[in-house]
Amino acid sequence: MSKLKGLFIVILIVVVVFSGGLFAYLNGIGAVDPGNKEDVTVVIPEGSGASAIVGVLDEAGLVKNSTFAKVNARIGGYHSLQANTYVFNKSMTLPEIMDAINTGDFNYISKSSFRIAEGARLTQCADALAEVVPYSKEEILAVWDDEAFVKQMIDKYWFLTDDVLDQDIIHPLEGYLFPDTYFIMETNPSIESVTEMALDRMDAVLSDKKAEIQNSKYSIHEFLTLASIVTKEGCATEEDAAHIAGVFKNRLDEDMSLGSDVTVCYIFDEDRVDLKVSQLDSDSPYNARKVSGLIPGPICTVPEIAIDGVLNYKNTDDLFFYAGPDGTIYYAKTNEEHDKNVQEHPWTEEDLANQ
Known about the structure:
Shape: elongated
Number of helices: 16
Helix content: 40-55%
Largest sheet: 2 strands, antiparallel
Strand content: 5-15%
Strand order of the largest sheet: 1-2
Radius of gyration: 27 Å
Number of domains: 3
């Protein structure tokens, strides 16, 4: 009888401990603030696993107990987590939030979005944003060019430096907004808050490569300037991005001008191959056909492929490259070889009309 009593006590203890642990677990993955319906916006990056997403949610104040949240991430069966921008609130339990991310629940996804295209000039970024916010292109550019606002951003982001305030810079934030699709969660978003979304994204991309960039021969501003020119010259493939970056590095090492027509396009806020002689002769410091070394700043948004291309440039003796009308890029070590490439792969009137 005493053995049965002892067994009963052991079972009772196990049940009590299990029940207590289960209660603690369920409480730990419960709502942070059941009565709080205020919107909380979270961005789930591509490729994020359940544990990484718990970290994002925790930082946003949506996790009640990080230990139990990590346990839930492991046992919750979240196998199809979908990157996006979501709107949650603190009255939701962790399983509710994770289920919404796992299914890409449309009810919690931001409904307003705009795209900053790869290789877009800041004026084009302003055009895209103006389509989804109650501000004009001119009002957006006024904020982006406002010195007081830019200085606030310099204080907040390590990759923005006083270099962007140089008097020769046309737009201080040119090249610093990361090209991506952005989802706006606020009902009446400010230009400033939307801008920080794009700068936050750039921060995430550059911070992963910060040590490599700092070990390069360039400042962060010079680095992005070079990467932006690589972008506009053609970085459809990783190989071309690295090869073009290598050509530019060789020219910089030889104290040559970059000879890049895309920088002239930037001066006149247009994209074209058949530039006028008067445009090519521009005395702007952005004219890389005439000035030695790098121009004052970036000329467009910089995708990750261009960033990686500059970091992992191809080491060759090439000093020239030429983009043919079919998009193929031809490289040359001498001016004679370069001229031959141009002659053998000319742009026709039809090509120019269809560019």
